[in-house]
């Protein structure tokens, strides 16, 4: 089946630094990738939709200057948390929708990245 | 707006017990419905899906039927195993290709 990877799987950083998280579709091309955030014992909340070659679309309340998303190729999207603060600590999950040429709803999820900001 | 409500957990069962996890949704139009499973330390995996009313999704002994009249998509399994212990998420996609809207997740714990 289709596989999506994320790197790193966990990261600890100091407050004020920036952290980049990569999301890759390993065996398929993804025109659209989604970034979610999951708090402990909570559901996944959509942060932004990333389309290859265009600017990401952010959900209401998500700061686009803080959470920079780049989708430079059909297999890679990155999320950069700039000037991270402890409240940004969370589990970040990406998903990718296969560019199969058909209308498919199947999204494949990465394993997530645990970010802890000290 | 679109939303998903699923039963609060945790659900604790003995092996071979019958499982039901309730899920109801609110949506405009004709959404697709999904169940995802998250095993400890792993990412979400698609368990099953249904794209139109009365469709039944099934996989690994789990099944769920898209009920438009009751706006529900309850997950069932006739005989659970210890290996089914995980967090189960009900989700909907308002339109093809759009992001998923998730319920809060239900933790299932199965003991032998």
Describe this structure in words.
The complex is a heterodimer of chains A (118) and B (112). With 118 residues, chain A is mostly beta strands. Chain A has strands spanning 4-7, 10-13, 19-25, 30-38, 44-51, 57-58, 67-73, 76-81, 90-98, 107-109, 113-117. In chain A, strands 2, 4, 5, 6, 9, 10 and 11 form a seven-stranded mixed sheet that branches. A four-stranded antiparallel sheet of chain A has the order 1-3-8-7, with no helix packed on it. Chain A is globular and about 40 Å long. Chain A starts with a strand and ends with a strand. By secondary structure, chain B is mostly beta strands. In chain B, 0% of the residues lie in helices and 50% in strands. Chain B is built from no helices and twelve strands. Chain B has strands at 3-6, 11-14, 19-21, 23-26, 32-38, 44-50, 56-59, 62-65, 75-77, 86-93, 101-102, 106-111. In chain B, strands 2, 5, 6, 10, 11 and 12 form a six-stranded mixed sheet that branches. Chain B is globular and about 45 Å long. In chain B, 38% of the residues are buried. The chains are: A mainly beta (118), B mainly beta (112). Chains A and B meet through strand 4, strand 5, strand 9 and strand 10 of A and strand 5, strand 6 and strand 11 of B.
Structural features:
heterodimer, A: 118 residues, mainly beta, four-stranded antiparallel β-sheet, 0% helix, B: 112 residues, six-stranded mixed β-sheet, 12 strands, 50% strand
